[in-house]
Amino acid sequence: MDRRMLEQWLCGDAAPPPAPAAVAAALGLPADEMTDTTYLRTAARVRSMRFTLAVLHDLFPRDGDVSAWLHQPREELSGLSPRQALLHGRVDVVEHLAVRAWNECAAAQAA
């Protein structure tokens, strides 16, 4: 499933943006660390973070599994974890990795 279709399916048009506290919790940060930055002050980052978290929560049944995925270093990120990449503003790359993982899981379940 392509990104646009997956976003429409998981988020729809009425899905609210994630609260800074929810993003902070997903990334394992204190809530005030997200609130005091410009990280979530751009519409594109907010939409991307909402979508990425929706993909990960659909892919993994438990918050601990989402956290494990976010903390696992990735070759595609030059050894950084998705969490570190997100904190460095590389939202688009992490979003792509999450969508790829979702599609790989869907393909495995279909086989």
Report on this structure.
The chain is built from 7 helices and no strands. It is globular. With 111 residues, the chain is mainly α. The chain is 66% helix and 0% strand.
Question: What's the SSE blueprint?
Answer:
Elements: H1 3-10, H2 20-27, H3 31-35, H4 43-59, H5 63-71, H6 82-87, H7 91-110
Helix pairs in contact: 4-7
Count the helices. How many? Answer: 7
Residue share in helices?
A: 55-70%
* Strand-residue proportion: under 5%
Care to count the β-strands? Answer: 0
Indicate the overall shape: globular
Instruction: Count up the domains.
Output: 1
Distance between the termini: 15 Å
**Biggest sheet character:** none
SSE string, helices as H and strands as E: HHHHHHH
- Rounded to the nearest angstrom, the radius of gyration is 13 Å
List keywords for this structure.
mainly alpha; 111 residues
Concise structural overview:
By secondary structure, the protein is mainly alpha-helical.
